[in-house]
Design a protein that fits this description.
Blueprint: E1 2-6, H1 10-21, E2 25-29, E3 41-44, H2 46-54, H3 58-64, E4 70-75, E5 81-86, H4 88-94, E6 99-102, H5 103-114, E7 125-131, E8 134-139, E9 144-147, E10 149-152, H6 161-165, E11 171-184, E12 194-200, E13 203-210, E14 214-222, H7 234-241, H8 247-255, E15 262-269, E16 276-277, E17 280-282, H9 297-314, H10 319-348, H11 353-363, H12 369-380
Parallel strand pairs: 1-2, 1-10, 4-12, 10-17
Antiparallel strand pairs: 3-6, 4-5, 7-8, 8-9, 11-14, 11-15, 12-13, 13-14, 16-17
Length: 385
């Protein structure tokens, strides 16, 4: 059995690795000539970590991950701690640690695990067609690929999604802009073993430790779409949006490199139920594009990969049957993740100012149990428990 995997990102590479472990031959086709991951880093929560462990990358992941032992929320103006608690109870309950990692390093790890020379770059898909003996993908350069089935992991702007669902799935602007990047660790900005978030005014500033003595940072600001802002104005923009915020936030803005800071208008896609058509399956952002507000986008793609390979390896009623079983196991799970992220997004970014003000007040009495219980519920909904 042979699978054509369209997309060499987190979802596509995880799928290719998982399918080959299940004894299925794969070919991976990626549109770009060189991978340049969108976003500086990613938080891999224990459900994603377990997937990567199962795919044989346990030690490599630990070498890339930061030590996120604590979680804290700080007041935006004073910088005072609203709540701080250990992540250990979460680790004890779910049986694995979270690992924030630089996205480019995660991507490289996946590609090396699969075999870099095997990934065919510069192959932008323009059409897919089911044939009596499988699936054919046609690329912009005129070449074609043939397989028994096809995995469409071609991202939030998927070319293949509409073929599968039969309709256009529009992206929905979530209402805020995110700036993100990597910066050298500095304990005067935040503790080196802690996920630190400053909150206020419907905005947030977050720092997570990753390997190599670096913080992953991001700034969120509710804004209209299409503002004329780019890397040339990053520091001035952030200084304006975060005027009056605490000294560590000002230090962070001073420390960032505008040339390596990304500005992203955040979108998601309304959940939909058809992830499969015949011998073609959507996976990752092509199947469930979400906001990053609960950190589950990449993890969900890893889950997809593990489930897809498991059902194809463990069922013998044919490819179409196996893909439908993949859809049945994933559709409610990924809908739940998209909607949880959207709900958290709205609270964090003051869609209703009174709700957000109440959340800020609740943080002052938060001891960790409630926040960690929500995280554990999300994590334990994954295919590996």
């Amino acid at each position: 059995m042979k699978a054509i995997v369209i997309g060499g990102g987190i979802g596509g590479m995880s799928a290719a690795i998982a399918l080959e472990k299940a004894g299925i031959t794969t070919e991976v086709y990626e549109a770009v000539q060189q991978m340049k991951p969108v976003g500086a880093a990613i938080s891999i929560w224990p459900n994603g970590v377990k997937c990567l462990n199962a795919l044989g990358m346990k030690e490599q992941l630990r070498a890339l991950g930061g030590n996120m032992a604590w979680l804290a929320y700080n007041d935006f103006a004073s910088g005072n701690t609203l709540t701080r608690f250990s992540m250990q109870p979460l680790v004890d309950q779910v049986g694995e640690r979270p690992y924030p990692v630089a996205r480019a390093e995660l991507q490289a790890m996946l590609i090396e695990q699969y075999g870099r020379s095997r990934v065919q770059f510069g192959k932008r898909v323009i059409q897919v067609e089911e044939t009596p003996d499988g699936v054919t993908a046609t690329f912009a350069d005129g070449s074609q690929a043939h397989g028994d089935f096809l995995v469409a992991a071609d991202g939030t702007h998927s070319v293949i999604r509409q073929y599968v669902t039969g309709e256009h799935q529009p992206r929905r602007y979530a209402g805020y802009v995110n700036w993100n990047g990597l910066v050298t660790m500095d304990s005067t900005i935040a503790p080196l073993d802690q996920w630190t978030t400053f909150v206020g005014e419907g905005k947030r500033v977050s720092l997570m430790p990753v390997s190599g003595n670096r913080f992953y940072f991001f700034f969120d600001v509710p804004l209209p779409q299409g503002l004329a802002e780019d890397r040339a104005s990053v520091k001035a923009d952030l200084q304006r949006y975060f005027a009056g915020w605490a000294a560590p936030v000002q230090q962070l803005i001073a420390a960032i490199n505008p040339e390596t800071t990304n500005r992203v208008e955040i979108h998601d896609i309304e959940p939909f139920s058809q992830l499969v058509r015949g011998r073609i399956a959507l996976l990752g952002d092509a199947a469930h594009s979400t906001t990053p507000d609960i950190g589950q986008g990449g993890c969900a793609a890893m889950e997809d990969a593990v489930v897809l390979a498991t059902v194809l390896a463990s069922h013998s009623l044919g490819i179409e049957d196996g893909l439908l079983r993949y859809q049945a196991r994933r559709v409610e799970r990924v809908k739940d993740l998209v909607l949880k992220a959207r709900k958290r997004c709205d609270v964090t970014h003051a869609k209703d100012a009174t709700v957000t003000a109440a959340w800020y007040e609740e943080l002052k009495s938060e001891t960790g149990e409630r926040v960690l219980a929500g995280m554990c519920d999300t994590i334990e909904g994954g295919p590996l428990g």
